Every structure is written in C-alpha cells, then in structure tokens.
UniProtKB/TrEMBL annotation:
It comes from Trifolium subterraneum. The keyword Cytoplasm applies. This is GDP-L-galactose phosphorylase. Pfam families: GDPGP1_C (PF26216), GDPGP1_N (PF26217). Keywords: Cytoplasm, Guanine-nucleotide releasing factor, Hydrolase, Nucleotide-binding, Nucleotidyltransferase, Transferase. It is found in: Cytoplasm.
Length: 438
C-alpha cells in the first residue's frame, strides 16, 4: 500500500506556477533567463566564499552574544540586501511584512502568524508520504528551473581560507556551486532557500557535506535570529530537490526555550539532550570542538533516520551551534486517517517552523482562536509516542556510536517529560509502558 496525503503545495518559485503568467525577461537564451545551458553560459551572480572556521565560539552562546563576538556580519547584510531588492522588484507572491503576527499567551510562547496568501490559487496535490528517500525526478519542479532573478548569490567555501565576495562571478556549473534563492512564498522576513550543489540535482536527503554547508551558513550569518530548517520527504517537504530553508525571526522559538536533559556527549564534545516539556519529542545537539564535529554527528543521525524511512525535521539555531532533530509521524497518521478532522481543517502543515513553535495559520478564525492548548494539541499529533521515540533513539544512537546516559537502566517516561500530562492529559498519545534499554 502507498500512503499519500493531499495538500496545497507551497509555491516557492514563480516558475513553479501551473501556468507561466509573468512576462519573461528578454535576454537571449530561452528568454526566461533560467539556470539551464541555454541561459547559464554568460550569466553572472554574486559569490560569497566563506572561511572554513573550525572553532565554534563558546558552548552556550546567548541569543544576543554571538552578534558581538562575530563582528563580520557581511553575509547577514548580503542576504537581507538582496532579499529587499527582490521585494522591490515584486518577485514575491504577497507582502509578508503585512502578515499579522502575535505571541500566543502561555508558558511556551508559541508564535502565530496569519498568512492567508500562502496557499491561494493552488490546487491540492497528492504527495507520497511513506518514503523518506525518493529518486530525483527531472520531470517535476526542481530548483534548476527557477529564473536567475530568484537567485541571490552563490555560497561556497573559500579556496584560501579568507572570506571573499565577488559581486559578479561567473557560474561554474562543473564546480557544483550552491545557491541561495528567495522563497517567493515567504513566511518571514528574509526567507530564503539554500540549495546545495544545485546542478547535481540531488534528491531531498541530508548528507555530511550539505549539512555542514547549512551550519556554515548559520555561522557566517552570525545572527541568532537567522535559523535554517530542513523537512524530509514525509515530513512536509514538497520539493524533492535538496534544499534548506532559512529566515529571520526576531524572537526565540519556543523549542529553543524548552528545557532539556543531557543524555550523551560525543568524543568531539557535542552534547546531546532530549527535549522536555515540549509537545514534540526530539533531540538537541549542541556545541562540539569544531563545526565539523557537530555536523558529522547530526548528519549521521539524519542518515540513519533516512535509511530507516523515518520522516524528520531539523532546525539549526544559535548561529549554527545548536541543532534540533525531530522525527515525526503526522503525515503518516494523516494518510491513515488518524488525524482529527478539526486539526486537518486548519490545513496547517506541521513542518520544521511549526514544530519549532512558529505556527503559520491560514484561516483568520484559527488565528483569532489561537491558544497554547490548540498549538500543543496539533504538535502533540506530530510527535512520536514515547515508546516509538525510544526505538528511534536507539537507531540514532547506534548510528552515532554512542550510548545514552541513563539514570538507571529502566526508564519510564517521567511525568514532566515531553508531554506535560497534567495540563494536557487529553492529548497524551502513545504508550506509557516502560522500555528497557541496554
Ligand atoms: Zn533558458
């Protein structure tokens, strides 16, 4: 049996529209100024070459510290400058700065945004949700089909270890450049896509190199309000072409404020913790002696989830020093008809941003009635049960060759663990059985 869900796909590029409406720029080639052989030869794009910094500044960077410690925030201004330019040029489908946003009262501080423009004029499409790894399909929309005007710059490691910027660099297709492009359906200011090695046409799957690139981008932006996110297939990615998303949100995400419990430390000094008092069960990876240490362990964890067909989301925070890994099962439940009609009616797709606590709501009604209990109820549906989470953790820990530190060998879900059962007893899902580990 094949599991599918119907949803309105997010339009991330103007070239993804069902009918190409906009007048193409007339500049030789195919006339669309695209990224294919017809137009790419003489094309030039800015190129930002980052320094391969190894040292991660301090372990627990406070949210306002890292801006001061890393004075060079050139990437930050480049992203925003280029993004603003595309806004002036009218490339976005709506003005995200006009979307209403509020913090939902309560302990978690969930953030609600009313975004009525995001899913307009699109028919629901069927998505297969039971396969995390699917081969790249050239016939479907992919980022090589976007117009050059949607690309902001090329992003790569510098050859000589110094940061370099070239405002007009040729595009060396054979050298596998990575691109940063706008998302034409932004959910916040500066919403962009990082597309690693775009011309290699990689499917949506994390590998060591691409995750390291994403961490480098977070470190280079050096702005704690700039986070990157990743959705696997089956966890609300809609485009099967390797990409991360990123945007600015000038406040902490609820997931970043959730308490954690340390369960392991790697040889490279990466601390691994479990999220507590948060509706979605997940792991937090922090610090490490080098960016590579953090990247290696997180990508190994992601690869193990992919190989075991477990959908997941990733949030990269704190200037690239903190990564949240969240296996999820919402789309699967949805396909099996196990999700409440009331939740489905909201048409909220719990991808990385929603799971992190930034709820992008499509109906005025849901925005007006937004409450912590409602947000919690939705996210609790996304979470694996405690029992399944333990199984998935065992898979991850085997892959990263570490052992979970336990208080004792018998671990029962503590009362104050992921789901606060006293406040939200009606939404507790999953088994309460004890699981013997080791
Ligand atoms: Zn072309």
């Amino acid at each position: 049996m094949m599991l599918k869900i119907k949803r309105v796909p997010t339009v991330v590029s103007n070239y993804q529209k069902e009918e190409a409406g906009d007048a193409p720029r007339t500049v030789g080639g195919c006339g669309r100024n695209c990224l294919k052989a017809c137009c790419i030869q003489d094309a030039k794009l800015p190129l930002y070459a980052f320094k391969k910094i190894n040292k991660v500044n301090g372990k627990d960077l406070a949210i306002d510290e890292c801006q001061e410690e890393l004075p060079l925030a050139f990437l930050d201004s480049l992203v925003l400058g280029e993004w603003e330019d595309r806004m002036q040029r009218g490339l976005f489908r709506y003005d995200v700065t006009a979307c209403e946003t509020k913090v939902i009262p309560g302990e978690c501080g969930f953030i609600a945004q009313l975004n009525e423009g995001r899913h307009l004029k699109k028919r629901p499409t069927e998505f297969r949700v039971d396969k995390v790894l699917q081969p790249f399909d050239e016939t479907k929309f992919n980022f090589t089909k976007v117009g050059q005007e949607e690309v902001l710059f090329q992003f790569e490691a510098s050859e000589d270890g110094e940061i370099q910027f070239f405002p007009n660099a040729p595009i060396d297709v054979d050298n596998s450049p990575s691109f940063v492009a706008i998302n034409v359906s932004p959910i916040e200011y500066g919403h962009v896509l990082l597309i690693p090695r775009i011309f290699e046409r990689l499917p949506q799957r994390i590998d060591h190199e691409s995750l390291l690139l994403a961490l480098h981008m977070a470190a280079e932006a050096a702005n704690p309000y700039f986070r990157l996110g990743y959705n696997s297939l089956g966890a609300f990615a809609t485009i099967n072409h390797l990409h991360f998303q990123a945007y600015y949100l000038a406040m902490p995400f609820p997931i970043e404020k959730a308490p954690t419990k340390k369960i392991a430390t790697s040889n490279g000094g990466v601390k691994i913790s479990k999220l507590l008092k948060y509706p979605v069960r997940g792991l937090v990876f922090e610090g490490g002696d080098t960016l590579e240490d953090l990247s290696k362990i997180v990508s190994d964890a992601c690869i193990s989830l992919q190989n075991n067909n477990i959908p997941y989301n990733v949030l990269i925070s704190d200037c690239g020093t903190q990564v949240f890994l969240l296996p999820q099962c919402y789309a699967e439940k949805q396909a099996l008809g196990e999700v409440d009609a009331e939740l489905l009616d909201t048409q909220v797709n719990p991808a990385v941003w929603e799971i992190s606590g930034h709820m992008v709501l499509k109906r005025k009604k849901d925005f007006d009635e937004a409450s912590e209990a409602n947000a919690w109820r939705l996210l609790a549906e996304v979470s694996l049960s405690e029992e399944r989470f333990q199984e998935v953790n065992a898979i991850i820990f085997e892959a990263i060759e570490l052992t979970e530190e336990l208080d004792d060998n018998l671990q029962c879900p503590p009362k104050d663990d992921a789901v606060d059962s006293s406040t939200y007893s009606t939404v507790v899902t999953g088994s309460q059985e004890c699981v013997v580990l080791q």
